[in-house]
């Protein structure tokens, strides 16, 4: 093989690696992001140490929906994972461990097993949206979020409503630990 052919092959490899790196950066910055969960606020749905894939594209073309698991910028240093409970224009209230939206009871089936484990009271304490945020209804461009581990979650009851512009994306996949691989919906 001549030095010219070697140089051509080397250039082909450099181009292929460069294209792969550019594609990886585009995917990470605009489509998907990996997150590691720290803390217990989403137990038992998501556990401390789980690794997740977050879809960053979906909310650029659509809106979050009730009960979506989202990652958002809670402050400049931290991102939180929580569940969307309330949407713009809605009034939220919890009474005797039941969610009421605009006066109608809404089931939260993802909490059924966890509620059975709580022996001394309710999983979710009673409150109204107005008591925790000072708002009668959730304003446009905001959502009300909560962790599934209601007794140990810093969420909209503490930090207020989440601005939709702070949402990174929707959790789509738990890929670690491997035995708990699961598409999240």
TrEMBL record:
The chain crosses the membrane at residues 13-32. Signal peptide: none annotated. InterPro entries: LexA/Signal_pep-like_sf (IPR036286), Pept_S26A_signal_pept_1 (IPR000223), Pept_S26A_signal_pept_1_CS (IPR019758), Pept_S26A_signal_pept_1_Lys-AS (IPR019757), Peptidase_S26 (IPR019533). It comes from the Bacteria. It is found in: Cell membrane; Membrane. GO terms for molecular function: signal peptidase activity. Residues 11-176 form the Peptidase S26 domain. The keyword Heme does not apply. This is Signal peptidase I. The lineage of its organism: Bacteria, Bacillati, Bacillota, Bacilli, Bacillales.
